[in-house]
Amino acid sequence: MNKSLLRQVQKEARNHDTKAIASLLEKEDFHSVAECINVLGSDRLVVFTSLNGEKQAKIALALNYRSKRSILPQLPDKTIVSFLQLSDEDDAADILQFVSDEHRNAILEKLQDEKRKRIETLVKYHPETAGGLMDMNFIVVKPDFNLQDIAEKIDRYTIREKKTPLIVATRDDGTIIGYVPYRNLILTSPDSLVKDITRSLPFISAQTKKRKLLHLLSRRKLEVIGVTDTKDQLLGIIHVSDLAQLIESETTDNLLQFAGVSREEDMLDPASVAVKNRYMWLIVNLGTAFLAAFVVSRFENTIAQMAILASFMPIVAGMGGNAGTQSLAVVIRGIALGERAWTNGRRIILKEAVAGFFNGLITAAVTIPIVWWFTKDLGIALVLGSAMIINLVVAGFFGAMIPLALKFFKIDPAVASTVFVTTATDVFGFFAFLGLATVVLL
């Protein structure tokens, strides 16, 4: 959306001129309108309610988390009902996660019976599980059905639901055999039976958490996944192509947590919100910084006698911090993808420490000649190079060990690891550098 149109929308929103807003946005696609609403701040609700029900249904799903959380709880029940009638059941269930239980029940009572039953099935599951991510756009066929039988079921479904279903074959007891790709229907002979043209359908429990689901997708090339109850009866399906937004959301969550920022924080929020979401981790970081300062204070005499050492301390801290962050990122990614990080903990820690050692040798080989040329003192150059090797080993060790330990104690590694790894590399790096300088140079 261009800036000129955005300014016009903002102006009309401040005047609460809903007709003018609807006219301005009439020809815009729903992604552009959602993008506009996401950046409007306090005017979001006015703009959203200016649109018709069909457009609201599409835009509600395209809004970011902050906009959904801000807009949906404030809408009248009849408004939500009007665009839920136009939404798929899985999308409707996602929207209802943002309203209170009281409002959700009132809204469900006003929906058509068949649609309500499906949505009620979906909202029973946490949105972070396979049950909360599935849709119910499928039909069930038996292995002895022929193509005519399948065609009749598809026709009845598409007339009723106005969409094309996935075809799932099940046994008499309801357990899954597989699914029938539409290309198989086209390419096979008319007298073929379902059992002859099915493909394997992997399935997972409805209670499977999204991280385990994403781990499964990272290991196998899949098009669709079945979602089952505790008796392996099919409840719904997940199309892998529909999970792009989930993957983006998971990546965003990890990035924000890694930086110590809340997902609920928006760049247009007032400063007070930013302060509230960030100050605790800054205080923790301040406490750990004092620990590093304490280590440095133990070597006041060394620094006083060789003031040039102070100019190289940021190199030691910076290299250790960067190396620690690299190890941290690799381990946290493995944990996020559901890899067996804890069972391979010793191997992972050893590998990162060894990698740190050899990276330390390489960077020391680059650093020593430069520092020697700069200071004309080979002793200082060798001390700095040695401290760098030690600190990169420390960075690899703690960069792997800390997230594994936090995961063991059921603390999210993405939230807390950075502060502790940075502290470890600062403390050990300064101690190694100034300690070696004291022993070797004085």
From TrEMBL:
Which topology term describes how it sits in the membrane? Multi-pass membrane protein
The yes or no answer to whether the keyword Cytoplasm is present is: no
Entry-linked InterPro entries: CBS_dom, CBS_dom_sf, Mg_transptr_MgtE_intracell_dom, MgtE_N_sf, MgtE_transporter, SLC41_membr_dom, SLC41_membr_dom_sf
Q: Name one GO cellular component term.
A: plasma membrane
Alphabetically ordered keywords of this record = CBS domain, Cell membrane, Magnesium, Membrane, Metal-binding, Transmembrane, Transmembrane helix, Transport
Keyword Transmembrane helix assigned to the entry: answer is yes
Chain segments annotated as coiled-coil in the UniProt record: none
Q: In which compartments does the protein localize?
A: Cell membrane; Membrane
| An annotated Gene Ontology molecular function | metal ion binding
Q: SUPFAM superfamilies attached here?
A: CBS-domain pair, MgtE membrane domain-like, MgtE N-terminal domain-like
Q: What does this protein do?
A: Acts as a magnesium transporter.
Family according to the record = Belongs to the SLC41A transporter family.
Assembly information from the UniProt record = Homodimer.
Protein name, entry field:
Magnesium transporter MgtE
Q: Which organism is it from?
A: Candidatus Roizmanbacteria bacterium GW2011_GWC2_41_7
